[in-house]
Please model this.
Amino acid sequence: MHWRDSELYLQLLHIVTWKHIVAFLASTFEPFKNDLEGWILHSDLFDAAYVAVVADPKRWFWSVQLLNFTAALMVFYWSEGSFRAISKRGGSYVAAFVYVWLGFLGAISVSFAFFLVQKYAIEKSARLSSPGRPSALMSVAVVLALLSVAVTPYIPANSPIFGYNLKVLHVLLSLPILIATGPALWSRGTTERAIVRGGNDNSPASLYAFLSGASLLSHLHLSLTHLYGASQGGVVGTQGFRDLFDAVFDNACQVSISADLLFTTIIAICFIILEIGHGQAQRRLNGFSSSVIGLALITATPFVSISTTFPAFLAWREGWRAVDKAEKEKER
Model:
């Protein structure tokens, strides 16, 4: 994709998602009857956004997909962030921590798109070092984040625990980057001379596989609940689909989240296609078999969610990247 085209796409993402976020903010202001000071002091917008989506299980069906995807995305940022760039002269880049909070405070799709733009720009003149195996602390944080997501709809929205759980969730999601770089706004690449050969050749493939499996179980449970459970005579009918579709438009916050999920899915599919194409062009992949696997993942996405297929693809991708790194080490 040409940069000019990607820039227009990013603007579209931002406009669509934030249009509804602003509408949601306006709706929370109405009860205060133009009392701006009271709204600033007493409105809890962070919790209110989640209250709006967990109030109806059908809204949560869409929102949980984005949250589960975010867990995999944070591991991806940790694995391939700009702080891993290696070049002859180093370099200065926007830190992964910035993209994390752009996603939390703005939109995951915007954060993801900007991250990929920088990643591919870096790879034109540098390479990314191997991240190694995720630490036990990082793996535990990711697992706890998924558990936090899973229990969110079961905590009473008027309970203080609801707000605490959400704040802990976001800390856990950002922990992989905090462990690696801290709250940095800029990161500097590493020069070739500073790199020690050898090192840890392990990868986050197992963690990606776990995230994919956990998201699959979550999605199957919710799908059976809302589609099979809403059907008559044990046969999946159209009413469940209608109810889920209608839930997308229940409120401005839900529209924003659903649009964010849609755009995130589109970006992730484009990423999968592009990475397979690169692998085939560099002869790291068998053209036919890799195309079949890629097509299977893309075809499965509407049924099992991008939160399942994206980390599944990343786990598979780590396999062929490991072979490629091993071959390059032999050449050296």
Observations:
- The longest strand covers residues 186-191.
- The chain has a mean pLDDT of 79.
- The longest helix spans residues 252-281.
- The CA atoms of residues 32 and 42 lie 9 Å apart.
